[in-house]
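debug: dumping io for the single-chain case to check the tokenizer round-trip. Nothing else runs in this session.
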Amino acid sequence: MHAPSVHALKEWLPVVREAGTGATQILFRRGGVRDRRFELRGGRSLLFPTTFHVNLDGGGDRFLKNPELHADLAGLDVRTWASIPCELAFEITGAWSTTDPRISEALDPWHCYGPRFLQERLGGASMTVVEVRAYRLRDPVVLTSVEGFFGCFSWVDLDGIVDSGQLEDAVACVEDNVFLQRQELTREALRGVDVHMLPVPREDS
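debug: decoded output
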């Protein structure tokens, strides 16, 4: 039997931080220049902290609900780091596609994006709403920075670099009962907006 494939999802530094505190479990995603449409992956993956390119000019904070909480991250460019610590793993527990601008307000308690994120970054285009459960690794995975990690695409393939077993020794960032309650509330909120449920793939192998 082959070991499961290991992938890392590139996500903006403040979003990764919020996922690690348990404050965020909803991501709004669309594809990059290279992948065009966001692809769902099964199983457990890493969260790869990265830089939102507009944040380098100091304007990225307008896309956050509470930018003052992440002032220390403003202007950081992960591409200049010699190594990249990945402290969180995650699993996709639900996914929906939508063009409904009401989605941000409907799911407001479970994401960290400000209203301008959808208005300016998505501009009415279809996006994927991704529900994730984050886990804090007991031993962070530290990746040596290479050029192939960067660019406008969503996923980094880490086969041969990271063993899938490294992602299993982790503690959930939100307790089971709290996460299940949030899931119920999320699905109740989604009934009031126009969404299409997407199948979440099984674990890659």
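debug: round-trip ok. The first strand starts at residue 7 and ends at 12.
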